[in-house]
Amino acid sequence: MGTASNQLMLLKCETCGKLFIPPRYVCAECGGNQFVETVSSGEGEILTYTTIRVPPAGFEDQAPYDICVIRLSEGINVTARIVAQEGGKGPEIGDRVSFLRNEEGANWFGLTP
Q1: Is the pLDDT of residue 2 over 50?
Q2: What's the CATH code of the domain at 106?
Q3: Among candidates 79, 77, 84, which has minimal Cα distance to 110?
Q4: What local confidence, expressed as pLDDT, does residue 105 receive?
Q5: How many folded domains does the chain comprise?
Q6: 10, 42, 49, 85: least surrounded by Cβ within 10 Å?
Q7: Range of 45's domain?
Q8: How many CA atoms does the CB half-sphere of 25 hold within 13 Å?
């Protein structure tokens, strides 16, 4: 089982400054290959989402669950899981979210009250 991290890490190209979600080996903007890790604010907004009702093998016990594309305040998009709220409110486009953890390569966000 992997470890959990409570910081959302980004990679910043040392040549042009473009940000990426790791892993990244070559900058799509300038072709550079030198990156420095930086910590994201973890704040963002839901651009779109879908509810997985028929999950792939190994995720059957988690369905239904939501997968979202989130625009981070840094201006880049990340695909993430959303933690369900008490009372059953699901995600909506435009909802504000905050990073909770990275667990085994999956980013988890929660709706911001």
Answers
A1: no
A2: 2.40.50.840
A3: 84
A4: 82
A5: 1
A6: 85
A7: 4-111
A8: 0
DSSP 21: P
> Rounded to whole angstroms, how far apart are CA atoms 22 and 83?
22
Number of residues written out for the chain? 113
How large a percentage of the chain has pLDDT more than 90? 73
Token pair in block for residue 83: 């933690």
For residue 65, what are the CA distances in angstroms to 53, 60, 98, 100, 101?
Answer: 7, 10, 17, 16, 17
Task: Kindly state the tokens that stand for 96.
Answer: 């504000």
Is residue 97 within 8 Å of residue 44, measured between CB atoms? yes
In sequence order, the 6+-apart residues with CB closer than 8 A to the CB of 42 are 7, 8, 72, 98, 99
Instruction: Extract the tokens encoding 64.
Output: 């239904």
φ/ψ bin of 103: left (φ > 0), alpha (ψ from -120 to 50), beta (otherwise): beta
Name beta bridge partners: 36.
12
Whether the pLDDT of residue 28 is over 70: the answer is yes
**Residue 75 above 70 pLDDT?**
yes
What is the rounded CA–CA span in Å between residue 104 and residue 106? Answer: 6
